[in-house]
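[Meeting: bench + compute handoff]

Bench side (C.D.) handed over the final construct sequence. Compute side (W.E.) agreed to return the predicted structure before the next meeting so the bench team could plan truncations. Sequence as handed over:
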Amino acid sequence: MSRALTRHQHLDPHRKYLLRKRLLRWASAGPVYMPFCGDGDIAVGGSKDGALKHETYEFPGVYADRFVFGADLDAERVAVCRKRIPNGDIRVANCDFWPFIDIDTGPIAVADFDAWAEPWPCFRSFWKSADKADRVVMFFTDAHRMGIMVDGTFVHPDGTKTEITNLTDRRAAFHFYLSKFVWPWFEEYIEPYRVVDKMRYLRGMLTYWGAAIQRG
């Protein structure tokens, strides 16, 4: 089960915003799937007045003009998100599984897997079950480099796990995690879609990246 979000949902929120603004220029019309939605900050922005009862910050929203299909394990935060995003279907759900199997969402144009630690089970279930637009923009937050460096545990995006005991191999997997392991797997997994643009940044051991993909 993917980890529920803590109260400190966003680190360097402005960098998250810039990543999304850069790639959303590729996005077609249509709804956004937002698992791990928390309070809905990515969709509608952060709060300056403290109404959400946690530290406040300025964070412009990026999905206010789209219908939002959102989900999170935290019922309290889902309740807040529903109030902030009236143009949406926000559910308490385990995001490792597609939460909207009971309805027709229409083609999803944007999917934002801001999971902090583990986006891949959620992504795989989305890719298997969701109706997707011909052009989709996706974002990922991934902490698996942490496990590689701390104890050599390498959780691959396909769900398999290996233990890297050699320090040199561990460092190589850590530094080339995205370019040698994630991106090649992702490009093969999404066929017949292809990547038309992508962007990434690192913050400590966390990896933030996004891709615009096109069918055919």
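W.E. noted at the follow-up: Confidence is low (pLDDT under 50) at residues 1-8, 48-52. C.D. will use this when planning the next construct.
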